[in-house]
Structure formats: structure tokens, C-alpha cells
Amino acid sequence: MIHTILIANRGEIASRIIRTCKAMGIRSVAVYSEADRDAPFVASADVAVCIGESAPSASYLNQDKIIEAAKRTGANAIHPGYGFLSENAEFADLCVKNQLIFIGPNSEAIRAMGSKATAKKIMQHAGVPVVPGYEGEVQTIEVLTEEANKIGFPLLLKASAGGGGKGMRIVNAAEQLKEAIASAKSEAQNAFGDDHLIIEKYIASGRHIEFQIFGDQHNNYIHLNERECTIQRRYQKVLEESPSPVLSEETRAKMGEVAVKAAAALKYDNAGTVEFIYDHNTTSFYFLEVNTRLQVEHPVTEEVTGLDLVKLQIQSAQGDELSIQQKDVQFNGYAMELRLYAEDPMNNFMPATGTVLNFSWPNLEGLRMEAAIRSGSEITVFYDPMIAKIIIKGENRQEAFRKMQFALQQMVCLGTVTNQNFLQYLVKHPKVIAGEYDTHFIQDFFTADLMRANHDTDTNLAMLAVSSYNWYQRTQERTLLAAVPSGWRNNFAYPQTDQYELDEVKTTVQYRNLDGHLHFKIADAKYDVQVINVQDDLIRLAIDGLQMSFHIANNQQNYFVHNEQIGTIHLSLLERFPLPKKQKVEGAYEAAIPSTILKIAQKVGNTVQEGDLLMVISSMKMENSIYADAAGVVAEIYVEEGQSVAAGTTLLQINKN
Ligand code: ADP
């Protein structure tokens, strides 16, 4: 019997697993890196062991340290969560070797599914439909080209060892093939140490539909229906829902049957997910891969089935028979999940770091928050920047969408750039509401300009909220001349001014305090504002007679404002006497966000052409290649491979020819 579980993971999933441990009367052990010392998941475990420095390789990926921590704390099982070691067959074996139960499937299943090429072969053999393509051993450019031409265009190159969308390239025509193969291979080699590629026909308007499967060690297999995860950015999921808005009962039953067939072919004995690409025009579906772990989006299935998937995992791992048979699985209502990230949708969803100063959500029936952080937590460069999963259960899809829109309106997450406004945009989009989308939806229907449009009045409200808030704070702080209202001027005609910058646009706000009202002027717009009250970071204003609340958080001159109507707005209050800005030197390449240098492709003195690779850097799990934007000579390289650098660090200097 499992009595103590060590969770070899962090963040929301560690908290989630610990919750089930507590409910089952199982002791929980957290392991943490130095960066996570004060994280909520660490505090919620019965005991917690520091296993090393913040970089994952030194802590969450350090197998020996984790095994040692398990022994030291008397754990007899390890739950790997998702990511990190969850799909690492050697680690599963190492657990078993140390008499620790690995809470996941047998290591052969993990190993087999770790290669997309092997996985496809096994599935094809088991009678599971797979995407037509090539998954052979021979990897010469001649053979790959020949196979690609047979499959036809558009096609998709994938790293066989791949995951997280890395090493994937869509190729639309034969002449792009050579270049695409080279770059996919190099990315695959960098990310996975293995440059094997598979080729697939590209399903142009496909939908990502996956089935949750479960097995035990007694050859019982079930599925728990689908999750649709079609809305993605960079091949990564943003919105997940169940049931899918497009599957017919007939197709659902067929896919479920195939998913169970896949489970049986692998003698699958824990939680897993069979992913399919589904073509709504033909209702055909094709196997993509099996994820041999608990998925990020598992709560969606929990909400519609009422099952605790972590509990089922623990039971399977300790050798129990599945407590539920296929015919007894019940599906109720509808559930959806959105992933709240520290990232910038206006800048290609670039991950962001920073301290979340204020994080709260409404008390809403059907809302389940799986949060990785709390107010005051820092989003660091070391890990995935997910802040929380927002899960809504509703009686039907319509109700759930309404509640999700409300939850996003009321949720406050201030202090760093997040995708909260973007998520709101998404769940209000008529096509999303209608369920009419494919995996390109975000690419096709989202532009930064669209989000900016209609923003003017909103930003005015944000600016006047900040100015009113600061005015109020000044009034409170003044001890001298307390009877004279703040902003009082000898020259009565002279208003106070604040200048703000948002999206590189500067705006001047003028206001005057007359009879307890602040009279604002922003460009041509005028507002009569009354401060109703202020509680900590929350200010309630009557703006032209309409009372509204604003949450305000600031980090020096950076202000984050949230209001249920305007969403979250990030602006800077410009200093009255600003220091001159750092001049950007021509030909100097900078790290836009905190990064680690993976590879330096040039030496000082090299001549480069426009488009030549200069460096590969990794920032928050995302790899970026830096290319020369003009020809020149490498004059200076300021960093080394393996080095971690802060945002704004100059990486290298190219002198133009
Ligand atoms: P990874 O393991 O890197 O996540 P997957 O094989 O799971 O890669 O694919 C990730 C996403 O890429 C899928 O969810 C889907 O949106 C898209 N995709 C994968 N294969 C195809 C294909 N053959 N045709 C169209 N889209 C695909």
C-alpha cells in the first residue's frame, strides 16, 4: 500500500497531487529548488526537501537527488506530475530499482511512446488509424525528400523524440524542403539530442481531439471521453474543453474504442492520453501520439466525470484493479480550462517574468482554480510561466462560457504581463463561442491590433484611476497644511499633470481638484471624478456619476490597473525628470528577456551575411535563434555558452561592412 508520496514536480500540479494525498490519508513530500523555497506547493506538503539550485537540471531533473529525498523521508512512491521526469523511462526504472512505486505507466510503454516513429508503428500494427507519412530509420536527405514527395504538400516535419511543438515545421512546397529539414534537424538535436525526423501529411484544418485513457495491471482498460484542445499557440494548448462542440456520438464512440485499443496494445497501466488530429469535413481521425502521464488539462475530464484522476493513478500504481468499468463512467455537463500565463500576446506570446503583486479571483460557483502562485510570488526565468489553470464546470457550454467571461472579468492578476485580456478576447470571439475553429485559429484570427482597437476610452479610465489613486495617497500622507487640499496651487488656473506611456504612446492627463471633485482632461475628453473610498490597492471612483472599482498595483513607475470592464491595463507613469534612455548601439544584439545562452554560432572576426545564425538562446522553456539582420563582421561576443543573462544584456556586436 502506498503510504507516503514524494511529488517530483512543482507549481500547481504539485499542489493538486498533494490535495488528493491528503484526501486519501497519504503523507506527502515536496521537493523544491532554491527558487521555490516559499512556493505554495512546498508549504502544503507534510515535509519538503530542498534538492538543489533553481535550474531544472540541478533540481527537478536530478534523479539521484530525488531518490535520495524519497529515502530520507520514508516515501514509498513517487508521482512525477507532468513535464520534467514524467515521461522519462530511465527514471521510472530507477524508482522501481529503489523499491519506490512510480505513479505512472510501465516503463516499456513510456519508452515506446517516447519515439513518435515507434509509436506510429505500434499503433498502425494495432489497427489504429495514423496520419499517412514516413517514419523510417533512413534519414538521408535523399530518402526524406523522396518520401516527402510521395506524401505530397503541405506536410509536417516532426522530431521523432519531440514534444511541446519543438522541431516541427510545416512545409508547403518542395523547394522549401531542404532548408526545413536542416532547421528541424538542428532544433531537434539541440532540444532532444536526437535529430530523427518523421514526416506527416499536414491536415490543414484539423482539430486536436484527445482521449483520456486509464489502465490497471490486470489488463483492464477504459477511456474517459475526449478533450478538445484545438485552440493553440505555437502548437501548445490554450483552451481545452469537454465535450468537444463538434463530435457526433457516433464518432465519439468510434474514437473511444480506438483509444482503448491503443491502451491495450501497450498493456497500459495508468493514466494516459491518446491524441488525435480530427478532420471535421470528413470526420476522419488520425493518431498523433500517446502522452504517458497526467496531462495539464486533466481537470476538464475530472469535472465532467466526477472522478479524481490522481486517485485513480495512485490506485493503479499500487496494483489495485480499476474501480470503475467503462459502462459505469458517467458524463455530466460541460467543462473548459484556460491557461493563464505570464506572457505577452502582443509580442508573439513571449514569456514574461516578474512579481505578481496581487492575485485574486471571484467566488464563483463552478470555478476551479489550480494556481501555481499566490500574491507576492515571483515568476522566474527558470520554469514554465504558467500562473494558473482556470477551470469552469457548467451545465452546458453556453453557461460555462458566460461564467468564464465573468471569471476573467473579475480575476485580478497584477504585477507582470499576462495573457488575461487575450483569454477574454478568445472566449468572447463569436467563432470560439460557435465552436468553429481549427488549430490555426489564433494565428488566423488574432492580431495585436485587434486587441488594441477600441482601447482609447479604456486607457483613459486606467490613467485617471492611477492619477486619482496617487492624488489620494498624497492627500493622506501630507501632515503639513493638511487643510489645504492636495494639488492646491497659488495660480488657480494651473492644473496638475501626469504623463503616461502605453504601447509607446505618451498621453498627458490634467486634473484639478475643485470642491472635492477631480476634474480630468485627457486630450478632448473630460471626466468628473469623485474618490468614493480607497482600501489597500482598491479604489472606488464615481466617474461622471458611475461608480466603478479599480485594483492598482505598481512596481516603481510601472502601473497595472484592473477593472471588470476594461480588463487589465499596464502603463508607465513617466518621471518628471527622466534620465536619458540607454542608447541602442547599431549592430548590438540583446536578450529581450532573461535567457540562457545555448549555443554561439559565430567567432569574433567572422563575416556574416543577413540571416546567418548568430546564437541560440533559451528563455523560459522557449528556444530562440538569433539571426543577423544585416551583413557585417562579428566585432565582440560578450557572453559564453551556458551563461544566464538578464533582460537587456548585450550578447554580441556586429560591425556593418
Ligand atoms: P508535440 O509532441 O510536439 O506536442 P504533436 O504531435 O502532439 O507534437 O502535435 C502538436 C500539435 O501540432 C497538434 O496538437 C496539432 O495541432 C498539430 N499537428 C500535429 N500533427 C499534425 C498533422 N499531421 N496535421 C496537422 N496538424 C498537426
The overall pLDDT average reads 92
Molecular shape: globular
Q: How large is the radius of gyration?
A: 27 Å
Q: List the uncertain runs.
A: none
Q: What's the helix count?
A: 17
Question: What proportion of the residues form beta strands (DSSP E)?
Answer: 25-35%
Ligand catalogue = adenosine-5'-diphosphate
**Largest beta sheet: strand ordering:** 26-27-28-29-30-31-32-33
* Portion of residues within helices: 25-40%
User: How many angstroms does the end-to-end distance come to?
Assistant: 71 Å
Task: Indicate the structural class.
Answer: alpha+beta
Beta strand count: 41
The main β sheet shows up as:
8 strands, antiparallel, barrel
Walk me through the topology:
Blueprint lengths: L3 E4 L3 H14 L2 E7 L6 H5 L2 E6 L10 H11 L3 E3 L9 H9 L3 E2 L4 H8 L1 H10 L7 E2 L6 H11 L3 E5 L9 E3 L5 H16 L4 E5 L4 E10 L5 E8 L3 E2 L2 E2 L1 E4 L6 H17 L5 E9 L4 E8 L6 H8 L3 H9 L16 E8 L1 E2 L5 E2 L2 E2 L2 E3 L6 E5 L6 E2 L6 E9 L2 H14 L1 E3 L5 H9 L1 H5 L6 H5 L2 H5 L3 H22 L18 E7 L2 E10 L2 E6 L2 E11 L2 E6 L2 E10 L2 E6 L3 E7 L14 E3 L4 E6 L6 E2 L4 E7 L2 E6 L4 E6 L6 E2 L4 E7 L1
Parallel strand pairs: 1-2, 1-4, 2-3, 4-5
Antiparallel strand pairs: 6-9, 7-8, 7-9, 10-11, 10-15, 12-13, 14-17, 15-16, 17-24, 18-19, 20-23, 21-25, 22-24, 26-27, 26-33, 27-28, 28-29, 29-30, 30-31, 31-32, 32-33, 34-41, 35-37, 35-40, 36-39, 37-38, 39-41
Helix pairs in contact: 4-5, 12-13
The structure holds adenosine-5'-diphosphate.
Adenosine-5'-diphosphate binds next to strand 7, strand 10, strand 15 and strand 16.
